[in-house]
Design goal:
This protein has 579 residues and is of the alpha/beta class. It is 39% helix and 16% strand. The strands form 4 sheets. Strands 3-2-4-5-7-6 form a 6-stranded parallel β-sheet, sandwiched between helices. It has a 6-stranded parallel β-sheet with strand order 15-14-16-17-19-18, with helices on both faces. The structure holds adenosine-5'-diphosphate (ADP), ligand TPW and magnesium ion (MG). The site of adenosine-5'-diphosphate has 24 residues, from helix 11.
Amino acid sequence: MADTATQTPAAEPAATGALTDGFNLVIDALKLNDINTIYNVPGIPITDLGRLMQASGMRVLSFRHEQNAGYAASIAGYLTQKPGICMTVSAPGFLNGLTALAHATTNCFPMILISGSSEREIVDLQQGDYEEMDQLAIAKPHCKAAYRILHAEDIGIGIARAIRTAVSGRPGGVYLDLPGKLLGQTLDAAKGAASLVKVIDPAPRQLPAPDAVERALDVLRNAKRPLIILGKGAAYSQADDEIRELVETSGMPYLPMSMAKGLLPDTHPQCASAARSLVLKESDVVLLIGARLNWLLSHGKGRTWGDAPKKFVQIDIEPREMDSNVEIAAPLVGDIGSCVAALLAGMKKGWTPPPADWTAEVGDKVETNVARIAPRLQNTNVPMDFHGALGALRTIISERPDTILVNEGANTLDFARMVIDIHQPRKRLDVGTWGVMGIGMGYAIAAAVETGSPVLAVEGDSAFGFSGMEIETICRYNLPVCVVVFNNGGIYRGSDVNPSGGEDVATTVFVKGARYDKMMEAFGGVGMHVTSRDELIQAVNTALESGKPTLVNAVIDENAGTESGRIGNLNPQSVVTKK
Ligand code: ADP
Ligand code: TPW
Ligand code: MG
């Protein structure tokens, strides 16, 4: 009789004679885990993998450059809480995708970069294979984890591991290396099927410890001038109802970070965006929900935060985030949904709203600042300036609140973030933690594909150039994307001059009078060229109404912008003038 204590639990399936292979096992493993969309650029050794994926009913979107496919995958991860998949060829394709993988990791978005690779035997002896590179080693510092699968029977477990790593704990990027030879390996079909792994509970809830909840409530209860800061981790967590209830129950003013705008509508009476300087300086207790005290919050110290002593309460799933920049008085480690629910339960047992003089002071400041800027948002100057053009788009977004706004540039980014109110969660996607240029078209494509919502991409002309070729992709898949290029003829401004007086134009300046709209026409989309506020409104409304791929070339005063938008202070300055 068999000894049940030592017997392996799963009996080997009987061989059937039918075969499967690496290609099919990769597809079966992804589909088993509800991953059905792939952002890719084909080539050796993954061309057939893409074809077979498409044949099996997966959506395989081919891009013109891997970086854009990668950015698309990263934001697909943010929007869906499932890892976005980018698939590339070896060495150069892999490296092109790697920027996006690092970006996903930095922004805490779940993503898997799957790259085909050369054979280990040749790579490890550096014998010069086609597109040879030790990709695994190069990927490692740029992601949460990097895995390689060498045997077809390990595909199931390898993909399961990649998925769980990407979405559990603090989400991030995972690299998965698939050597070409693996894809062709055959395996008995029944054994192959049995080797697949369905990831159960891929991102388990992580409950905060009760004493940590009590500590946090204690700090919050003693606040005289409290503030809540919502970050994109809060938006990612999809705990929308709980977060709203917490904010409203607490009665505290709140500040949404860029991509957390719309988690509660920006028009909410407790929204303190228009009083940002005041609330950061004067608050005495700050509750951070899925927002890091990195450069975007001036590291929690210095002039931005003023002299008033602060206590921070921080909700984050990553314990090491605590005390990263300043002391955290009450760390609350767990998933945002659970942490917020625990705080709410505590508040419901007894809660006094913050002192009225504080909320009134913040409310007054918001009102004054909103009133002060309002006339500028109505201006009809020709050429348009940022405020006039963005004021027009602000109205359009308030009338079409389900539109996803993608936004990059310098002035185009900073002013749009300030001017355009967002009314629903996860409707604003932008440059994120790195302030990176190039996310635009990849984000726009994935946003349309993953959500079906209309997309409005508001792009600086420089920013657009980083991914502009993907408008062909937008046309090819006929996506409801309207791109508005804020064409001020350059980076920050179009008016700089070459300081040497030489023939070349200044380093920040582009071709005058460029017609980006004609690029869209070249691929069968709609191109529009606008110079006034009324034309802009008409063009964007027509585009969003039609759902047709559209590019609006919006001429902006070349003098309107400032150096680096609103972060010019981060530029180092030379103190020596070259003769
Ligand atoms: P922002 O740029 O909007 O300020 P950050 O990217 O700096 O936001 O911060 C997001 C934070 O959210 C990260 O520290 C990340 O660990 C955290 N986070 C992401 N998802 C969750 C979650 N489900 N529960 C708790 N924390 C989360
Ligand atoms: C990958 C540096 C920051 S903003 C910007 C650059 C090149 C472009 C600003 O010009 P744009 O906007 O888009 O025309 P506007 O409205 O001010 O004229 N490379 C990468 N990322 C960054 N952030 C840069 C360079 C940069
Ligand atoms: Mg520009």
